[in-house]
Amino acid sequence: MPGPLQTTGEQIGAPSARSGATPPLGVGSIIRRYCAVWVSYALANGFLLAVYPLFLRARGLDQFEINSVLATYFAVTFLTDVPTGAFADAIGRRRAFVLGCMIRLSAFMLYFFAHRYAIFLVAEAIDGVGTTFCNGAVDAWAVDELDDAGFEGLKDRMFSRSSQLMNLGWMVTALIGTWIADYNLAWPWLCGAAGFACTAAVGAAVMRERRPHIAQVAFARIPAMVGERIVAGFRLGFRSRTILLLSIANGIFFAAWAPYWIQWPQYVNDAYAVGPWIIGWFFSLFTIARLAGAEVVVRLAANEAARPARLIVVAATMSVTFLAGGTLGARPCVVIGLFVLMNFAMGALDPLTRSWLNEQIGERDRATLLSFHSTFATVGGSLGLLAVGAYADRAGIPASWQVSAIISLAMIPCYWILHRQAGAPAIIPVPASE
Q1: pLDDT digits over 99-125, tens only?
Q2: Radius of gyration of the chain (CA)
Q3: Helix (H) and strand (E) counts in the chain
Q4: Which domains does the chain have, with CATH numbers?
Q5: What 3-state DSSP class applies to 76?
Q6: Where are the alpha helices (DSSP H) in 396-424?
């Protein structure tokens, strides 16, 4: 493990006091540690997933203000995602992850005490910074360690299993969060803050890095180093056609689905009018559907050539069911059934894209390029929240879902181009230091 940061060195990358690398972990141990970190992270985050928009509405925010608060989160992650990914590359994935958890803890505490729109914007900005410190760090750590351990083949199964476990974690704490919210809508924020403290401890304990990164850091050199890595990350990201198309599809996905995530709890709460607890059960139903979709990916034969076709089918299923749900918005029971199928497809999408993306990236710049990928999500999410949210204020939530479904269809051309693409290199051949 890398030692504590110090300011006595004159250069970035001064040698560690300990020479040599520790023996690599076994493949099974790496996968278990990877899943443990993501499950802990999901448990901490899950308390708010089902009641977040209801809390903001209860604190006096209208629909546009709710959308703009979440858009602030996306805008902040857009500005900080690549720099924090470069930071993780430079000083270690474990440090970046633990720091991100502690920043998110502070944001959750600020949310608990906030009653004014401006304070919610500040809290969301802080949470965005914390999230970007965590983004990519765990995936990058796991893939690097698996490569060191000699693992060969596609990693679809690992990403699918982690996605299933994360969804289970979200389901458990979302149920707890909605039950607590029946007494006080602010209490789930306290539960989430405690969860991130526990997650930081889990990450510090299990994310052992075989190669020490930096033991001494000249802080005056960090801005220049981060700038160099940002430029390299964007250069390499745009150079790889596969990474670029997967990133564009990711941006389209978030433009279409970010509004849905904060709209469906309000739709369910208004349609059934029995209290926040019902949202937790519907959230669990949708989660089970996503788990089933991820399980299908696990059981499919690993076939790299079949990925684009599978993603086309998944994207089409999601879009069509979403469009039907928006069209039949006056019949909530039918909408719920359609959304179960939609979440089934969504559960298959995540492990397919995460595995494919990670296998396109070289070890040296993995966290930076993962952040490049998620930057498209932040831009898409921000634009989608503001545009679709403004339309929802005029036409209603179901009508806005029809617009989102049409946006979602734009993912299909990206996957179709990849389907037609032949012989793309698996690893970016040009190092960032070029």
Answers
A1: 999 999 999 999 999 999 999 999 999
A2: 21
A3: 16, 0
A4: 27-420 (1.20.1250.20)
A5: helix
A6: 397-408, 411-420
Neighbours of 433 (CB within 10 A): 9
For residue 157 the two structure tokens come to 């199964």
Q: Which amino acid is at 16?
A: S
CA-CA distance, 306 to 74, in Å (whole number)? 32
CA distance 368 to 345: 28
**Contact yes or no for 356/243 (Cβ under 8 A):** no
C-alpha angle 284/58/328, rounded to 5°?
Answer: 50
Helix axes 307-327, 241-272, angle to 10 degrees: 30
Pick from 231, 275, 286: which is nearest to 46 by CA? 286
Q: How far apart are CA 233 and CA 198, in angstroms?
A: 32
The H or E element containing residue 383 is: helix 366-395
Distance CA 30, CA 34 (A): 6
Residues 6 or more apart from 347 whose CB is under 8 A from it? 163, 167, 289, 290, 291, 292, 293, 294
Percent of the chain with pLDDT over 70: 80
